Give the backbone structure.
Amino acid sequence: MTGRKMIQPTNRFRNNEKSVDIGNSFWKISERNGLAGIVAELDDGILRTGMGHEFVNFSCCSYLDLDSHPKVIEGAVAALRTYGVLDHCIPRSRVQIPALLELETSLGELFAADAVSAISASAASAGLLPLIASGHVGDGIRPLMIFDKNCHVSMAQAKPVCADETEIVTCRHHDLDFIEDRCKEYARVWYICDGSDSLGGYAPVKELAALQDRYGLQVFYDDSHSVSAYGTRGIGYVRSTSPALDDRTITVTTLNKAFGTSGAAILLNGHPKETLRIIERFAGALSYSQPLNTAAVGAGLASAEIHRTNELITLQRRLQDRIALFDSRIATSQSGNTFPIRLVPMDDSRVIEAGRRVFEAGFYVSPVFFPIVARGTAGLRVMLRAGHTHQQVSELCAVLEEVGAPSATPVRPETGA
């Protein structure tokens, strides 16, 4: 190698050396402690490893347990029988089966939007964000793109590609002052963030809507963790709360969390049909031979119908009941909100050991560490579901208290009139 050039990274938008070197040490320790790479079979809500260890999963995003709903399973099977093909492998811009359009129409009606399907929220964001950067999705103006420091990696990984089209900056988590200052400075600004955060909590959508009204700010939300679990007919936090649901706002959501199926939906309002065609033809994986397969389409149609019934309300209430029960026992920074994720704080030095003890007691929660969270802010991520029983939640809380989780302060009943 003598005399040959060595490449020096710029690390303007990512730093694999730091992330992998530090983060992988935690992953290796997790694996040695049996907390990563687990292989287990699911039997009536209980997971069982090949060694016979049984545990309840508290690290699953199917918050309403619709992924195992009989109607969703049958919807997938029925679609396969009807169309006789699993994956019609051709770009949707050329040929598509009618069921895909039927699903998008159903999702559009459910979420009050123009819906475009994708194989995943990651694929949707990777395809859409560069088109926003170039102005092809928007009003033709190349914007300043502000990525939230804590935005999901599925969005953050698009920074280098977007930077080839426009100017990119990163701001502190929901730094409204920074965003407003950039709006005063630039002709067009897009803010990229999670509507519902994978570590618990919601975006300040009303405050952002005020900036949208005042300066023409445009916002790209990933609201994957609240869709179905939150809002009338499961429309999610952003679409339940934001008063700026027009062409200034784009929402992406996965369908394989609380919605219980597979794939993703891009939710648009007020965009011209030509914008939809641009997305269909040029948004990365959305333009490849990768449409949702037939089983996913059939399952999605079935789940959408459940969302139109009182059964969804029952499941949402059941989920909130489990969340309230957890909050009555364990103190977290998410306590009191409707979000189904709780991050139980633990020191970096103790988080793996705590996770191992919880697993041995018959429960799985995810130890999270850098780069999933900032260094020094490790914890056990608990993901609550409507299908968890009161006994399971209570027993998990008891184990968490044993490994050092902070107990919730009892609320004294009010006195007087």
In short: Residues 88 and 130 are 27 Å apart (CA to CA). DSSP finds 14 helices and 14 strands in the chain.
